[in-house]
Amino acid sequence: MKLIKIPAGSFAMGSDQFGPFESPIHNVYLSDFYLDETPVTNRQFDLFARATGYRTDAEKLGTAWGYDRQTGYRNIAGLHWRQYHTPAREDHPVVLVSWADAHAFATWAGKRLPTEAEWEYAAAGGSRRYPWGTTAPDGTQSNFAQPPGDLPPTTPVKKFPPNAFGLYDMVGNVWQWCADWFSETYYQCSAPTDPPGPATGATKVRRGGSWNVIQPFRLRCANRGAMPIAMAAANMGFRCAQTYPDHGDITI
To answer: Which of 10, 23, 106, 136 could form a disulfide with 111 if both were Cys (CB 3.0 to 4.6 A apart)?
Structure first.
């Protein structure tokens, strides 16, 4: 998996045009960090599970949030990530992973989950409304507004063009877990340098929108969301971050 170096810099985080939990806009400085080129795929998560014997929260709980043709979205007994890991979907983002599952994979890989400040800065490529620029999404830049089915209509990673940093699938395809606890008021007291997020919370930050997002505004780099830490859903995935001494992109 290739890690892309995201150079240190400052950016205006947040938005004053949407929900109050995106404001106020505040300047944030981030040190150098690295971010996975793509979300973690079924193939990569399978390597982790095989190497460690890891069982996801959905596997242990015996249920996960998915889509049933008869009843719509609901918790489905016996649903977990392996049912969506078919030979044709090895390069699709892994889904049905909780925050704890994502954290476990990142730790095994010698990485971590990105902070939401890192995620937003990387997604925006420095200073963009969407990863590709300012134009509204039309289906050529990312995977969104897809109807549900027996299999979640994710696409293989790298199907759509990368952003200015060379990152793929930053928005659309799957929501992505971040390291931070979620707080609607955190931007009012956020640290100006490398903010780690609140010390405690009830839910974790998710970023990026997904295949079933209908509203284009939810694909903005500044858009925030949250989910319970143990929840696994068919539109939820993740990518990893890392901190290294100064050098170029790497593959690990």
So the answer is: 106
Confidence of residue 46 (pLDDT cuts 50, 70, 90): very high
Report whether the peptide linkage leading into residue 24 is cis, meaning its omega lies within 30 degrees of zero: yes
pLDDT value at residue 248: 67
Q: Which long-range contacts (CB under 8 A, 24 or more apart) does 43-47 make?
A: 43/90, 43/91, 44/1, 44/94, 45/81, 45/85, 45/94, 45/97, 45/105, 46/85, 46/90
CATH number at residue 125: 3.90.1580.10
First to last CA, the chain: 6
Q: What amino acid is encoded at 193 in this protein?
A: T
Q: Of 28-37, 225-234, 238-247, give the lowest mean pLDDT range.
A: 238-247
Domain that holds residue 217: 2-251
Q: Which residues contact 188 (CB under 8 A, 6 or more apart)?
A: 24
Q: In angstroms, rounded to a whole number, what is the distance separating the alpha carbons of residues 43 and 28?
A: 35
Number of structural domains found in the chain = 1
In angstroms, rounded to a whole number, what is the distance separating the alpha carbons of residues 11 and 28? 6
On whether the CB atoms of residues 39 and 173 are closer than 8 A, the answer is yes
Q: Where are the beta strands (DSSP E) in the chain?
A: 2-6, 9-13, 26-30, 33-36, 63-68, 72-77, 175-181, 203-207, 225-228, 236-237, 241-242, 250-251
**Stretch 20-32: mean pLDDT:** 96
pTM, whole model, 2 decimals?
A: 0.96
Extract the tokens encoding 36.
């996975």
Residue type, 164: A
How many angstroms separate the CA atoms of 214 and 212, rounded? Answer: 6
Say how far apart CA 65 and CA 15 lie, in whole Å: 30
